[in-house]
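Regression test case RT-17, inverse folding.

Input:
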């Protein structure tokens, strides 16, 4: 029986069922194509007690966050600019200096902490995947290569590594034991410290039909209603919240230790909670129609692929992103539909997309093959990609996005 990963409840309503799919970041080598892939059901339900939307678990986290994890944050200029602006804003707001200590949970390849170091502020990262941890160390960043939770937080606190600021970007949704994870922040923060969490907002996921942000590595799909409750149960209090445009619309939540509430509550918190209640996020009706919306977008993408084949158009894609793998597998696409996927990350090149087995190549293939259509899989950075690849118009190529509905643009 499925139990809520926060409150332990057993009363769920359906939210999204994408069938079976391989882990979205498990890219394949040529030899892997000779063997069957592991596939797991991708089923998401919403708890009617605490309103946490969550995957039904079928595998351990090590299946999804392996040593050769291939997602590196630094390959998006948009995200690097966002990280740099965050660091400067936090420095000014919380008076961070050479006497402060900043930590980042899920530090990835050092995309954010490199800017903390540039300001001369002591820092370290926590990152469990070997591939990205090594990339961060190459930038001179101290990395603790472990999964984060209460036990690790206690160990670091005993070592005198409690932080004035802890950043946690795009990781809160990635943890199977959300109570243990959040509880670790309450231990690792200094009494007056601040933790910030950025994550895609469930409201925007539904409003924008962003079903492709669902994959096994995302255990939770988060509203402020659910997050505020989870935090309070695990020793943190939300005192501020901001909207950001990243990943299709995200929240940045500010939290402090509940036993030392030195940061005043802003009006933004209650305003957003009221907005979520008004949208019905604490009622079943909000979650009811998402499956049909996802299927409509899938069918539109299938029609585009079939029509392109019929017309003899060559279709490629850009960005070997996890969300792209969700779309491709839900649509049943393969290398007969899309000739190749371009990605700037060398760790993905010369490999294959999980499930669809579409080859991943460097950008030079666009210039040599001149495809008629380029599907932008990471639609959240569409503007950046279209600017980078503007030259495809030289041969009449056009860009395609499938979310929220199919769009073709020059």
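Golden output:
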């Amino acid at each position: 029986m499925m139990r809520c990963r926060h409150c332990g409840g057993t009363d769920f309503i359906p939210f999204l069922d994408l069938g079976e799919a391989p882990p979205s970041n498990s890219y394949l080598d040529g030899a892997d194509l000779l063997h069957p892939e592991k596939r797991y059901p991708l089923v998401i339900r919403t708890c009617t007690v605490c309103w946490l939307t969550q995957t039904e678990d079928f595998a351990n986290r090590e299946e999804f966050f392996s040593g050769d994890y291939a997602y590196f944050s630094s390959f998006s200029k948009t995200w690097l600019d966002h990280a740099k602006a965050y660091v400067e804003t936090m420095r000014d707001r919380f008076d961070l200096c050479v006497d402060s200590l900043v930590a980042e949970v899920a530090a990835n390849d050092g995309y954010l902490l490199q800017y903390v170091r540039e300001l001369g502020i002591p820092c370290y990262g926590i990152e469990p995947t070997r591939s990205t941890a090594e990339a961060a160390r190459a930038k001179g960043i101290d990395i603790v290569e472990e999964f984060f939770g209460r036990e690790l937080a206690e160990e670091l606190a005993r070592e005198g590594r409690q932080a004035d600021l802890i950043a946690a970007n795009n990781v809160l949704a990635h943890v199977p034991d959300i109570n243990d994870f959040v509880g670790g922040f309450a231990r690792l923060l200094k009494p007056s410290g601040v933790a910030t969490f950025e994550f895609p907002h469930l409201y925007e996921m539904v409003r924008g039909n962003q079903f492709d942000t669902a994959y096994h590595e995302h255990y939770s799909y988060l509203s402020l209603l659910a997050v505020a409750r989870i935090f309070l149960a695990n020793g943190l209090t939300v005192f501020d919240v901001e909207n950001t445009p990243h990943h299709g619309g995200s929240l940045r939540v500010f939290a402090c230790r509940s036993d030392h509430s030195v940061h005043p509550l802003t009006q933004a918190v209650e305003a957003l909670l009221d907005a979520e209640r008004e949208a019905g996020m604490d009622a079943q009706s909000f979650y009811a129609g998402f499956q049909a919306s996802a299927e409509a977008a899938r069918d539109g993408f299938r029609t585009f692929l079939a029509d392109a084949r019929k017309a003899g158009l060559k279709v490629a894609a850009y960005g070997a992103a996890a969300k792209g793998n969700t779309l491709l597998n839900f649509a049943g696409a393969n290398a007969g539909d899309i000739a190749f996927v371009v990605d700037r990350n060398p760790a993905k090149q010369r490999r294959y997309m999980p499930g669809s087995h579409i080859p991943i190549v460097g950008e030079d293939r666009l210039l040599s093959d001149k495809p008629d259509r380029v599907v932008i899989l990471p639609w959240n950075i569409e503007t950046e990609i279209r600017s980078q690849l503007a030259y495809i118009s030289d041969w009449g190529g056009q860009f395609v996005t499938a979310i929220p509905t199919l769009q073709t643009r020059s």
